[in-house]
Amino acid sequence: MARSKLKRPDSRLPITIDLLKNIIKILPAFCSSRYEAVLFSSAFSMGFFAFLRVGEMTTACGREGSNHAIKIENVEVTNHNIKNILGVFKNRPARSRDFNFCGPTIRCWNLSGKITARIFKDSTSIRPRISGQLYCHFDGSPMTRYQFSGILKQALGYIGFDQSKYGTHSFRIGSATSATMLGFSDEQIKVMGRWSSDTFKSYIRIPQF
Protein backbone atom coordinates (compact mmCIF):
# COMPACT_ATOMS: atom_id res chain seq x y z
CA MET A 1 0.00 0.00 0.00
CA ALA A 2 1.43 3.34 -1.03
CA ARG A 3 1.99 5.78 1.75
CA SER A 4 0.30 9.12 1.42
CA LYS A 5 2.79 11.93 1.55
CA LEU A 6 1.92 14.85 3.75
CA LYS A 7 2.41 18.10 1.91
CA ARG A 8 4.20 20.70 3.96
CA PRO A 9 2.36 24.00 4.26
CA ASP A 10 3.90 26.77 2.17
CA SER A 11 5.75 28.93 4.68
CA ARG A 12 7.27 31.45 2.27
CA LEU A 13 6.56 35.02 3.31
CA PRO A 14 5.16 37.65 0.94
CA ILE A 15 7.05 40.54 -0.58
CA THR A 16 4.85 43.44 0.49
CA ILE A 17 4.67 46.83 -1.19
CA ASP A 18 6.65 48.44 1.64
CA LEU A 19 9.29 45.71 1.55
CA LEU A 20 9.55 46.04 -2.23
CA LYS A 21 10.18 49.78 -1.89
CA ASN A 22 12.90 49.15 0.70
CA ILE A 23 14.56 46.54 -1.51
CA ILE A 24 14.58 48.91 -4.49
CA LYS A 25 15.95 51.71 -2.33
CA ILE A 26 19.04 49.78 -1.23
CA LEU A 27 19.92 48.00 -4.50
CA PRO A 28 22.44 50.71 -5.55
CA ALA A 29 24.39 49.98 -2.35
CA PHE A 30 25.64 46.60 -3.57
CA CYS A 31 24.78 46.17 -7.26
CA SER A 32 27.86 46.38 -9.47
CA SER A 33 26.59 49.35 -11.49
CA ARG A 34 23.69 51.76 -11.87
CA TYR A 35 22.48 49.66 -14.79
CA GLU A 36 22.30 46.52 -12.64
CA ALA A 37 20.46 48.37 -9.86
CA VAL A 38 17.86 49.68 -12.31
CA LEU A 39 17.61 46.27 -14.01
CA PHE A 40 16.75 44.42 -10.81
CA SER A 41 14.52 47.24 -9.56
CA SER A 42 12.45 46.87 -12.71
CA ALA A 43 12.35 43.07 -12.58
CA PHE A 44 11.32 43.00 -8.92
CA SER A 45 8.64 45.65 -9.50
CA MET A 46 7.29 43.87 -12.56
CA GLY A 47 7.24 40.58 -10.68
CA PHE A 48 5.06 42.15 -8.01
CA PHE A 49 2.71 44.41 -9.96
CA ALA A 50 2.20 42.05 -12.92
CA PHE A 51 1.94 38.90 -10.74
CA LEU A 52 4.76 37.35 -12.78
CA ARG A 53 6.44 34.01 -12.24
CA VAL A 54 10.23 34.17 -12.15
CA GLY A 55 10.35 31.96 -15.26
CA GLU A 56 8.49 34.66 -17.18
CA MET A 57 11.33 37.13 -16.52
CA THR A 58 14.48 35.00 -16.48
CA THR A 59 16.27 32.11 -18.13
CA ALA A 60 17.45 29.03 -16.27
CA CYS A 61 21.10 29.45 -17.29
CA GLY A 62 23.39 30.27 -20.17
CA ARG A 63 23.63 33.17 -22.55
CA GLU A 64 20.56 32.36 -24.62
CA GLY A 65 17.33 33.94 -23.47
CA SER A 66 14.47 31.72 -22.36
CA ASN A 67 11.64 31.11 -24.83
CA HIS A 68 9.32 31.34 -21.84
CA ALA A 69 10.48 34.81 -20.78
CA ILE A 70 8.82 38.05 -21.85
CA LYS A 71 10.48 39.68 -24.85
CA ILE A 72 11.23 43.39 -25.15
CA GLU A 73 9.32 43.50 -28.43
CA ASN A 74 6.14 42.35 -26.66
CA VAL A 75 6.02 45.19 -24.15
CA GLU A 76 4.07 48.37 -24.71
CA VAL A 77 4.16 51.49 -22.55
CA THR A 78 1.32 53.96 -23.09
CA ASN A 79 0.57 57.23 -21.31
CA HIS A 80 3.31 56.64 -18.75
CA ASN A 81 1.82 53.29 -17.77
CA ILE A 82 2.64 49.76 -18.84
CA LYS A 83 -0.36 48.91 -20.96
CA ASN A 84 0.21 45.24 -21.60
CA ILE A 85 2.78 42.52 -21.86
CA LEU A 86 2.41 39.59 -24.20
CA GLY A 87 4.44 36.45 -23.82
CA VAL A 88 4.53 32.75 -23.16
CA PHE A 89 2.69 31.62 -20.08
CA LYS A 90 2.27 28.56 -17.94
CA ASN A 91 -1.30 27.91 -19.07
CA ARG A 92 -0.67 27.66 -22.82
CA PRO A 93 -2.72 25.15 -24.89
CA ALA A 94 -1.75 21.59 -23.95
CA ARG A 95 -1.08 20.56 -27.55
CA SER A 96 0.93 23.64 -28.41
CA ARG A 97 4.62 23.00 -29.03
CA ASP A 98 5.20 26.52 -30.24
CA PHE A 99 7.04 28.20 -27.38
CA ASN A 100 6.43 31.57 -29.02
CA PHE A 101 2.68 31.15 -28.54
CA CYS A 102 1.16 34.43 -27.39
CA GLY A 103 -1.17 33.78 -24.51
CA PRO A 104 -3.46 36.20 -22.69
CA THR A 105 -2.44 39.74 -21.90
CA ILE A 106 -0.48 40.40 -18.73
CA ARG A 107 -1.14 43.73 -17.08
CA CYS A 108 0.56 45.69 -14.35
CA TRP A 109 -2.16 46.20 -11.77
CA ASN A 110 -2.53 49.37 -9.75
CA LEU A 111 -1.73 48.07 -6.29
CA SER A 112 0.26 51.16 -5.37
CA GLY A 113 0.85 54.22 -7.51
CA LYS A 114 3.08 54.48 -10.58
CA ILE A 115 6.31 53.04 -9.19
CA THR A 116 6.41 50.30 -11.84
CA ALA A 117 5.98 52.52 -14.89
CA ARG A 118 8.70 54.93 -13.77
CA ILE A 119 11.24 52.22 -12.97
CA PHE A 120 10.34 50.26 -16.09
CA LYS A 121 10.89 53.29 -18.31
CA ASP A 122 14.25 53.92 -16.63
CA SER A 123 15.37 50.35 -17.33
CA THR A 124 14.26 50.29 -20.97
CA SER A 125 15.85 53.68 -21.68
CA ILE A 126 19.32 52.31 -20.86
CA ARG A 127 18.76 48.74 -22.05
CA PRO A 128 20.93 47.58 -25.00
CA ARG A 129 19.10 48.05 -28.31
CA ILE A 130 18.69 44.36 -28.98
CA SER A 131 15.68 42.09 -29.31
CA GLY A 132 14.99 39.12 -27.09
CA GLN A 133 14.50 38.64 -23.38
CA LEU A 134 13.21 41.78 -21.69
CA TYR A 135 15.59 41.64 -18.76
CA CYS A 136 19.19 41.43 -19.86
CA HIS A 137 22.53 42.75 -18.65
CA PHE A 138 24.42 45.56 -20.35
CA ASP A 139 26.43 43.03 -22.38
CA GLY A 140 23.18 41.56 -23.72
CA SER A 141 23.26 38.35 -21.68
CA PRO A 142 19.85 37.45 -20.21
CA MET A 143 19.08 37.69 -16.52
CA THR A 144 19.06 34.21 -15.00
CA ARG A 145 16.87 32.76 -12.28
CA TYR A 146 19.99 32.29 -10.14
CA GLN A 147 20.89 35.98 -10.43
CA PHE A 148 17.32 37.10 -9.68
CA SER A 149 17.22 34.94 -6.56
CA GLY A 150 20.75 35.89 -5.48
CA ILE A 151 20.17 39.65 -5.64
CA LEU A 152 16.84 39.27 -3.86
CA LYS A 153 18.41 37.35 -0.98
CA GLN A 154 21.33 39.76 -0.80
CA ALA A 155 18.92 42.70 -0.58
CA LEU A 156 16.84 41.02 2.12
CA GLY A 157 19.94 40.29 4.17
CA TYR A 158 21.19 43.84 3.71
CA ILE A 159 18.05 45.29 5.31
CA GLY A 160 17.95 42.70 8.09
CA PHE A 161 15.33 40.20 6.90
CA ASP A 162 15.63 36.42 7.23
CA GLN A 163 16.55 35.31 3.69
CA SER A 164 15.41 31.73 4.32
CA LYS A 165 11.79 32.83 4.69
CA TYR A 166 11.56 34.34 1.20
CA GLY A 167 11.89 33.01 -2.33
CA THR A 168 11.32 34.11 -5.90
CA HIS A 169 7.65 33.14 -5.55
CA SER A 170 7.30 35.60 -2.66
CA PHE A 171 6.45 38.24 -5.27
CA ARG A 172 3.31 36.41 -6.46
CA ILE A 173 2.46 35.58 -2.85
CA GLY A 174 2.79 39.27 -2.02
CA SER A 175 0.74 40.31 -5.05
CA ALA A 176 -2.15 38.02 -4.09
CA THR A 177 -1.97 39.08 -0.45
CA SER A 178 -1.88 42.80 -1.27
CA ALA A 179 -4.77 42.50 -3.73
CA THR A 180 -6.85 40.70 -1.10
CA MET A 181 -6.10 43.32 1.54
CA LEU A 182 -7.04 46.06 -0.94
CA GLY A 183 -10.47 44.48 -1.39
CA PHE A 184 -10.19 42.80 -4.79
CA SER A 185 -12.56 39.85 -5.20
CA ASP A 186 -11.42 36.25 -5.65
CA GLU A 187 -12.44 36.33 -9.31
CA GLN A 188 -10.53 39.56 -9.91
CA ILE A 189 -7.39 38.14 -8.30
CA LYS A 190 -7.63 35.00 -10.43
CA VAL A 191 -7.65 37.20 -13.53
CA MET A 192 -4.82 39.37 -12.23
CA GLY A 193 -2.56 36.41 -11.54
CA ARG A 194 -3.83 34.24 -14.42
CA TRP A 195 -4.89 31.47 -12.07
CA SER A 196 -7.34 28.93 -13.48
CA SER A 197 -8.33 27.60 -10.05
CA ASP A 198 -8.54 28.70 -6.43
CA THR A 199 -4.93 27.67 -5.70
CA PHE A 200 -4.08 31.36 -5.28
CA LYS A 201 -5.84 31.25 -1.91
CA SER A 202 -2.91 29.26 -0.50
CA TYR A 203 -0.69 32.26 -1.32
CA ILE A 204 -2.61 34.76 0.76
CA ARG A 205 -0.92 35.72 4.03
CA ILE A 206 -3.20 37.98 6.03
CA PRO A 207 -1.44 39.34 9.15
CA GLN A 208 -2.96 38.13 12.41
CA PHE A 209 -3.43 40.83 15.02
TrEMBL record:
GO biological process, one term: DNA recombination
Keyword terms, alphabetized: DNA recombination
Record's signal peptide: none
Matching InterPro entries: DNA_brk_join_enz, Integrase-like_cat_sf, Phage_Integrase-like_Recomb
UniProt GO MF annotations: DNA binding
Residues annotated as transmembrane: none
PANTHER family in the cross-refs: P CELL-TYPE AGGLUTINATION PROTEIN MAP4-LIKE-RELATED, PHAGE_INTEGRASE DOMAIN-CONTAINING PROTEIN
Protein known as: Tyr recombinase domain-containing protein
Species this protein is from: Mytilus galloprovincialis
Organism lineage string: Eukaryota, Metazoa, Spiralia, Lophotrochozoa, Mollusca
